[in-house]
Amino acid sequence: MQFLVNVVDSGEAAAAGRTDSATAAERDAVSALNERLLADGRILFAGGLTAPDEALVVDARSDGEPEVSSGSLFVGDEYVAGFWVLDLPDAETARAVATEASVACNRKIELRLLLG
Description:
Layout: E1 2-9, H1 12-15, H2 24-39, E2 43-48, E3 56-59, E4 67-70, E5 79-87, H3 91-105, E6 108-113
Antiparallel strand pairs: 1-5, 1-6, 2-5, 3-4
């Protein structure tokens, strides 16, 4: 089973003028988790994301020129700051890994099963 594990940031670091929202301890904890997941062959893909104000929204559903707007489609203080796509045996294991990720990142985690 494949799962999308989203790291949800609150934007507090950006509000404080910091570009990196993770502390050194959080970065170390995430690195340790990544190393273990890599060694176990669980990570299919992982990455961090730029801030929401650097996003572009593209809507090309009409026959004319696509509509392009700057900034995230979603408004709010929380946003997805990074993610893992993991190959895990079942939902129980996914929940356990999501819990580990929440502890390591010191952030909320959104866990979603990939369809297909």
